[in-house]
Fold this protein.
Amino acid sequence: MARYDFRTPRLYISGDLVEGGEVSPAEAGIHYLRNVLRLSAGAEVQVFNGRDGEWLARLATVSKREIRLEILHRLRPQPQPSPLHYAFAPIKHARLDFVVEKAVELGAGRITPVITQHTQVARVNIERMRANVIEAAEQCGVLALPETEDIISFAGWLTAVDPQRTIVFCDEDAEVSDPLRALREAPDAAFTLIVGPEGGFHPKEREAIIARNGVIRLSLGPRILRADTAAVAALALLQAARGDWR
C-alpha cells in the first residue's frame, strides 16, 4: 500500500489550518478546483501550508465568486525542515523550473540562486521559483516547503554559509573515485551543495571554496554533465549517503 494518498487532489493554502476552521484558496487554487477538477460542494481535498501539516478538507461552498474549504482533520503532522541546502548558478528558464522542481522532490530545505563569474543568466524570477516549489510540493506529497532565497553574489553566498556546515562542491577535477564513500566518511555536519554554471566555476571561485574549512570536492563520474543533471545527481548522492534515504 502506498504511504500517501495520491488520488485525492492536493492543494497548497497560505492560511492557517485548524480542525473545524474554514479557508479560501487563492485565485489559482479556485481555478484548479472549479475549472480543472470541476469539483462540487462535498468533494474532499488534501490541504497543507508548510506549517501545520496536511489536512483533509471538504468543499463547503462552491460559487462563481468563491470556494470555501471546511477543515476536517489532520492527516500528517508537520515534519522538521530539511537541513540540506542547495545553491546553484541560475540557468535558462525551462531548465531552471526543472532544477527547482527536482530540488523539492529530493528534499532540499533551502534553495539559493548564486551569481558566479560564468553565470549566463543574470536575473531570476523569484516568484516563479516559489510557485514552482509549491507546485512540486503539491504533486509529490511534500509538506516542508524549502525556503527560497533571493539571488546573491558568489562572494556574498560563501560569506553567508554557516562555518559549521560542510560545503559539497561539484568539481570535475576532484580526485574522488567513490563519491558515496567520500560523503559517508565526512564528519557529521549539515550539508550545503553548490552546483556551478555550464562553463564551470572561475579559478578564483574554485580557490575560494577549496580554501574554506569543511569542503568536499565531489566528482560525478567520467562524463561532463549539464548543470541541471549534475544537481539531480549530487542531491541524490547526498540523500543516499547522509540524508533521509538511509
Q: What stands out?
A: The radius of gyration is 20 Å.
